[in-house]
Structure formats: C-alpha cells, structure tokens
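Notes from hallway chat w/ T.B., transcribed later so I don't forget. T.B. wanted the structure written out for a chain they're using in a teaching module, and asked if we could keep both sequence and structure tokens in one place. Agreed to drop them here.
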Amino acid sequence: MHQNNSFHAKAQSTQRNLTENEIAKILVNIFFKVHRVLGPGLLESVYEAAICYELDKIGMKYKRQAEVPVFYESVKLELGFRADIIVEEKVIVEIKSVETMSTTFPKILLTYLRTTNLKLGLLVNFNVELIKQGIKRIVNNL
C-alpha cells in the first residue's frame, strides 16, 4: 500500500473508516482534476500515475496494478487479473483511454468485484471531452 508520509494527509485517511461512497466521491473529484489538467488521449498508465499521485497527496492508501488471484474449484490460479488501482481496500478503479467503451468493460469490472468480494468499482474512460461522460459506477450488492 502506498501512503503519503505527511501527518495531515495521513490523519485525513486514517482518522475514520471511509465508506465506499465517500471514497468514490473523492475519486470522482480526482478524475475531474486529472482530466482537466491532462486532457483526453494519453495512455492509461499516465492517468493511473496521476491518480496515484493525487491519492498520495491526500494520504489515501491504495494498491497499484494489484495482482488478484482467482480460485477455480478451490485451486488458486497464479494470476487471475491485475486491478489498475484498489483504493482503501474497498473500491476498484479501472482506467481506460479508448474511443468507444466496450460493453464488456463493466462486466469485467463486476467480475473483479465479485472475485475480490468488494462492493464498488469505478470504470473511468479519460478519452472523452467531458469526464462526467466517462465515469461509470459498477456495484456488487452495495
């Protein structure tokens, strides 16, 4: 888990246990800022780095490119998938920078949520004119 070392930012994150919706609100604000500063059309890895930088600034814990194993008939498969970012061990962020969102992207994120037993995922496509159009909440029994 990455974490900012400043006391103020650390206190913000660890002062209380944030809900999935509180984390999502913070993330959406970060998405808006990153999109406003960088604009559309860059690689997904650039947006991922910028989001993680913003999370560090406010002291939120996250795992970047988190390896998540998948179990099949009680057998652990070595690498099931890599989640772009898992924030505060509660919300998965899946980053895209594509011309058109595939209908399979939300389904894949829902599978990630079910596999990790997490309740909320945010699918964000930065290759849009207005970032609001690029954000989709995916819920797993929230």
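Follow-up for T.B.: The chain is about 40% helix and 30% strand. Might be a good example for the class.
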